[in-house]
Amino acid sequence: MTAKKTAAQASDAVAAIGNNEVGDKVVLKRKITLINGVGIIVGTIIGSGIFISPTGVFVFTRSVGSSLVIWTLSGILSTLGALCYAELGTCITRSGGDYAYLLVAFGPLVGFLRLWMALLIIRPTTQAIVALTFAQYAVRPFFEDCEAPESAVRLLAAVCLCFLTAINCISTKWAMKIQDVFTIAKLTALVSIILAGIYFMATESLDNFQNPWEGEYALSSLAYAFYSGLFAFGGWNYLNFVTEELENPYKNLPRAIWIAMPMVTGIYVFVNMAYFAVVSRQEMLASIAVAVSFGNRMFGSVAWLIPIFVALSTFGGVNGILFTSARLFSTGAQEGHLPAWFSLVHVDRQTPIPALIFTCITSIIMLLSANVFVLINYFSQILWLSVAASIAGLLWLRISKPNMPRPIKVNLALPIIFLICCLGLVLLPSFTEPFNLLVGLAITLSGVPIYYVCIVWRSNKQTKNQLMQWIERGCQILFNAAFVDCHHDRKREREFSEMQTSIEDKSVSH
């Protein structure tokens, strides 16, 4: 009897899901805690870079002291950017990060262009590159005397992407547990490097710190060193892509930033001090992976742990990028800028399965491309341009919507300073390599005709593509999925806005 009842209920559920979008919608639960939020920020910022390429800063300064100062200033500036995004993320509590903010500030076309380049290039190439880095270092202990076969590396990268996609489809909590565990693992690895460096400085000579300010101080060299430092802090805005699933975002978003950013900045500075203490300047400039040179000298027979540390670090990075990418595409579908099936979530697990699978497939396609690293070079400047546009949107909203509820309101000087720095990061490399910026702009602007043909014109016709309807219906039935109730959080935002207005009116009357 129970089995028949269960089967009947399942049949009814599938039938209800198979109906048009008139059926019941899913209200997303806020499952991301403060600790999870810290894990997302720390886990996506700390990737392979701090293990492999601190040379990127030192090669331009040739100065130990200047390098440490630039690492510190890069962390401070990234924190300023994260605080500006905290204001945006608490007054526009939509998942999607830059896309959501540009959509509100400058309208649907600008928002769509940000989504277009993320969908086409940035997200899949970033995930593919980080997965490839994971695979290269995961297999390194098995190929100590020779290079690992490229096909084996790419296959392992694909397995990594598929495994993490499956975890993210099954459970948001599982995905967050993986993020937390691997964030702790990479922090443990970095702390072990710091402790080894402290031990070396306490027991050996400090010859490498002699004449710490001797180096290259040309303005262009310092600017490029600063660019490399800021690049290593990429990922500080990733929590803003999942604010709709963050518990109490008005409090936990800024708290996560204040916990994560000083932590990462301090770790980066102390790790670089450890590198400089152990690895000479000549070795630093000649080394492909500084952490490997450090490990060979300090860890001896267990130096093979360094590649494992890098693999753990990048594995957690893939998970964070995958998790936030699916939420970005889901938000774009809710706004009508992507096919509706991107916004479907599992009825019980509340995970965006179609968006996750699409993200995985596009990343695997990028693994097959020999030009995957070239593609990401075209968009590094465009990515900073979108950050600059989001900060400009913050300033514009201050003017155009002065009464907009702002639980966090940063000093006006912070977004202005950060905006100037972002524009410098966009324009500076263009003096020597203008082609990258031009190609990135061309591919981004190719989304303009796509927007008018596929979004504006199709919405005016009020018709649905038959193929998209079949895919949508198939995803609903196959994945037991339904659409998200976007109005639930809008109601919460309106209530908050009314409360803020009431408080302001009372304060004015008094």
Concise structural overview:
The chain has helices spanning 2-18, 34-45, 49-52, 55-61, 64-91, 98-106, 108-139, 150-170, 172-203, 219-232, 249-278, 281-286, 290-298, 305-334, 353-367, 372-400, 413-427, 434-445, 447-461, 466-478, 487-509, and strands at residues 344-346, 481-483. It is mostly helical. Belongs to the amino acid-polyamine-organocation (APC) superfamily. L-type amino acid transporter (LAT) (TC 2.A.3.8) family.
Would you mind describing this structure in some detail?
With 510 residues, this protein is mainly α. The protein has a single domain (31-205, 219-508), classed as Amino acid/polyamine transporter I, CATH 1.20.1740.10. 73% of the residues lie in helices and 1% in strands. The protein is built from 21 helices and two strands. It has helices at 2-18, 34-45, 49-52, 55-61, 64-91, 98-106, 108-139, 150-170, 172-203, 219-232, 249-278, 281-286, 290-298, 305-334, 353-367, 372-400, 413-427, 434-445, 447-461, 466-478, 487-509; strands spanning 344-346, 481-483. The protein has a two-stranded antiparallel sheet. 47% of the residues are buried. Belongs to the amino acid-polyamine-organocation (APC) superfamily. L-type amino acid transporter (LAT) (TC 2.A.3.8) family. Pfam families: AA_permease_2 (PF13520). One of its GO terms (cellular component) is plasma membrane. InterPro entries: AA/rel_permease1, AminoAcid_Transporter.
